[in-house]
UniProtKB/TrEMBL annotation:
Source superkingdom: Bacteria
Source organism of the structure: Vreelandella sulfidaeris
Cofactor entry: pyridoxal 5'-phosphate
PROSITE patterns: AA_TRANSFER_CLASS_3 (PS00600)
Record protein name field: Aspartate aminotransferase family protein
Keyword Endoplasmic reticulum: no
Family: Belongs to the class-III pyridoxal-phosphate-dependent aminotransferase family.
Molecular function (Gene Ontology), one example: transaminase activity
Gene Ontology CC terms, in alphabetical order: cytosol
InterPro entries referenced in this protein's UniProt entry, alphabetically: Aminotrans_3, Aminotrans_3_PPA_site, PyrdxlP-dep_Trfase, PyrdxlP-dep_Trfase_major, PyrdxlP-dep_Trfase_small
Pfam families, alphabetized: Aminotran_3 (PF00202)
Keywords of the record: Aminotransferase, Pyridoxal phosphate, Transferase
Amino acid sequence: MTRLLHRSIGQTLPRAASARGVYITDTEGRQYLDGSGGAAVTSVGHAHPEVLAAMRAQIDNLCYAHTGFFTTDAAEELAEKLVNLAPEPLNHVYLVSGGSEAVEAALKMARQYFVEVGQPQRRHIIARRQSYHGNTIGALATGGNAMRRQQFQPLLPETHHVSPCYAYRDKGNDETPEAYAARLADELEAKIRELGPDSVMAFVAEPVVGATLGAVAAEADYFKRIRKLCDHYGVLLILDEVMCGMGRTGTMFACEQEGITPDILTIAKGLGGGYQPIGAVMLSSAIYESFANGSGLFQHGHTYLGHPVAAAAANKVVEIIARPETLANVNAMGERLQNGLEAALGASPYVGDIRGRGLFRGIELVADREHKTPFDPARKIHAKVKRQAMARGLISYPMGGTIDGIYGDHILLAPPYTIEPAEIDLLIERITQAID
Ligand code: PLP
């Protein structure tokens, strides 16, 4: 019996022993193509020599200095780099240790901002059904995924949920994308009005949904309308790019493709690329100024925030992602993956939708393609596909459950940005076999 508490108790997992490029090898010598980057984490591939060298150099000099006493070159350089890459007015960075911490810090930033500017009554958070923003209690309450929430009720009372932008399921056949986006924005506006416009603090959403629905991007007008609504009602827009940010969708930040900038942006996974646990919150100058001119302190902190080795690793990861050839490869290989999946699976009666952006692709599995009927959730089809893929030497990220209504079985594919054409073709071959 293992003494380690695994998430799925009793499940026997292979032991990962080493990794290089797009492959992980277990202690039995079996090689797995990392088709999902774990959970969309591995951005620049495993054991990238430049990242390893950057970490080694940092380890040789300094492993830890508490941020209550010191700042470090690594943390300062990372913040500078991120601000130079991000759209205005995201010009300050708060470093944390992962995605849930980033979302948690973002929520507290929004709360403190309204206290600093004399609107402490703004406390309600609106997010979307079927969303996931992390597992800490504030992030879990914000997420609208009923399956993850159910055991932990009551959660924070001031969290509310509206419909996600999920055209495959929810857009009417005769509805234009613009009309659909307008309908969703109207729903959000009605929720803001119901709660009382002066009491709403933030709207939280993922630009491209990852962890609950496989790679669902919004319709063209949606985020522009949402940004306008938030501005109109003085609500902060928090975009969660923990999964879809840092080049994953083909641009450094997913929101760039929506033509809008949030007030607060969370990033993690691809930022550290799996080399170190790290996340970050990017905040607008208005929020920064409210702290700087108000209490002079962001009332929040963790022992490991701004960890120098994590920051050094992320510095190099970001530098590699920002090279034009990296994002060019994300876009080219993303297109190859989409086209290949469509060719291999597009006619399958069990594949309802193949979608996504860059190297962030989702396959929605259905029992009946014509009527989009999901599989009986008791069959746990997504978990079976994951097992079948593992048996064929492929890591893919499964999602499923139907507690929120129709939610279905999804497979997320998110390989490292360094993947090559032959590896994309192998990924397609193995996932097709697994689904078959
Ligand atoms: N936000 C989103 C959109 C995520 O996909 C995740 C993790 O899957 C999180 C937050 C939580 O991140 P972490 O698991 O690093 O705490």
